[in-house]
Specification:
By secondary structure, the protein is an alpha+beta fold. The chain contains 2 helices and 5 strands; from the N terminus they run H-E-H-E-E-E-E. It has a single domain, classed as Hotdog Thioesterase (Thiol Ester Dehydrase, Chain A, Roll). The protein has a 5-stranded antiparallel sheet with strand order 1-3-4-5-2. A hairpin with a 5-residue loop joins strand 4 and strand 5. The longest helix has 17 residues. The protein starts with a helix and ends in a 9-residue tail after the last strand.
Length: 120
């Protein structure tokens, strides 16, 4: 059985490149596309962990700090901010790889279907 220490050591990352299908008339990344990428990222991360049994993610907080533009390469990272018997919260950070600035921050909540933290 996994413990809190085993899960928090895994902070996955992925990259996303902004293409012409993802932008508006001003060549800025569409917010709904950014949200879809972040949501898919956390969903994949959770579903790839067989020790967790969770429901679909719920967006708790979203902060778009700056625009991303055509051909920008974005680094998407996550970290667990809260894990208890009933809930898992993930912070997702989206950073521009070139400038190293944060484009967006989002917190997703997952309700655990059954108690997760048990004695090993």
């Amino acid at each position: 059985m996994n413990t809190l220490n085993n899960i928090t050591t895994n902070n996955p990352t992925t990259y996303f490149k902004v293409t012409k299908n993802d932008i508006n008339n001003h060549k800025a990344l569409l917010p709904n596309k950014l949200y879809e990428v972040m949501e898919q990222f956390v969903t994949d991360m959770i579903t790839n962990n067989p020790d967790l049994s969770v429901n679909a993610p719920k967006l708790y907080k979203l902060e778009i700090l700056k625009n991303a533009f055509l051909n920008d390469k974005l680094l998407i990272q996550s970290q667990i901010t809260k894990l208890n018997h009933n809930e898992l919260q993930l912070l997702v950070l989206v950073n521009d790889e070139k400038t190293k600035t944060t484009t967006c921050k989002a917190t997703f909540k997952f309700q655990l279907k059954e108690p997760f933290l048990k004695a090993s």
